[in-house]
Q: What sequence folds into this?
């Protein structure tokens, strides 16, 4: 969709949101059971291949070209509860928050699972601010440059929100508007799947998919205590030290994973022998 001005984009997006990558309306399933089954499988594959994403770009001044490889995804929450506790998730209002505070994110996920693209992945969004992450000293105060930011339309616990709003205002928020929805978790998983395909330097573990509070503890609380990390298919990683007589095949059999998984996860050269004492990370 091409719009002539930023203002026409801003005021027209709710009526004319364009979804990129949506499949066409599926044809009616034929009566023959075998044909119906085959057609159904084809339709599932077609829909799984793409994610409908609404382009809701922020102005270019809220991002800049990316030059470093992406190694992380950072998850946040955002709402307009401070101004409108009874209607905290109006997308226009949240969009204005980004503009007002001069911040941005690459994606935003709505309460019904709708995904909005705010900044292209090839540009650095301004979402992390100052902070540090254990094991990644080069990311100190530079996490924006190494990460993709995802904002979830959500509200945290009372204690997490008290620095932003008084208790009486928090109590006006409907219980259904606090925390996260099933649809959001589903969309987040689908979005992560696609992001990780495009950026193999991001590993699907808790060292590389993080919350804002882990990078800026004491300053930020999102995505908060109500975010269920177990629902985004994070890979559990075990550390293993190569022992005498070990081979990739033996280690793969021991942990029930493929040799290709170990090779990819540890960036190994399959033509080079393992060394006794070598440290490996085994995804489970």
A:
């Amino acid at each position: 969709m091409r719009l002539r001005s930023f203002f026409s984009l801003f005021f027209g997006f709710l009526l004319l949101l364009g979804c990129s990558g949506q499949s066409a309306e599926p044809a009616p399933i034929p009566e023959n059971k075998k044909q119906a089954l085959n057609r159904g499988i084809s339709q599932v594959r077609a829909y799984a291949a793409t994610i409908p994403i609404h382009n809701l770009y922020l102005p270019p001044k809220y991002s800049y070209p990316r030059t470093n490889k992406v190694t992380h995804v950072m998850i946040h929450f955002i709402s307009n509860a401070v101004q409108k506790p009874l209607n905290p998730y109006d997308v226009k209002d949240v969009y204005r928050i980004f503009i007002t505070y001069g911040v941005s994110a690459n994606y935003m996920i709505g309460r019904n699972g709708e995904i909005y693209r705010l900044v292209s992945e090839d540009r650095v969004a301004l979402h992390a601010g100052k902070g540090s992450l254990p094991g990644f000293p080069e990311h100190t105060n530079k996490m924006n440059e190494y990460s993709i930011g995802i904002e979830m339309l959500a509200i945290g616990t009372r204690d997490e929100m008290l620095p932003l709003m008084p208790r009486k205002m928090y109590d006006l928020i409907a219980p259904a508007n606090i925390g996260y929805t099933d649809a959001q978790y589903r969309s987040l998983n689908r979005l992560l799947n696609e992001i990780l395909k495009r950026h193999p330097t991001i590993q699907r573990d808790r060292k590389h998919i993080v919350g804002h509070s882990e990078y800026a503890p004491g300053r930020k609380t999102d995505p908060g205590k109500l975010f269920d990390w177990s629902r985004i298919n994070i890979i559990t990683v075990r550390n293993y030290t190569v022992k005498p007589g070990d081979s990739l095949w033996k280690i793969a059999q021991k942990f029930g994973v493929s040799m290709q998984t170990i090779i990819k996860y540890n960036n190994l050269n399959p033509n080079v022998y393992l060394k006794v004492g070598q440290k490996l990370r085994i995804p489970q």
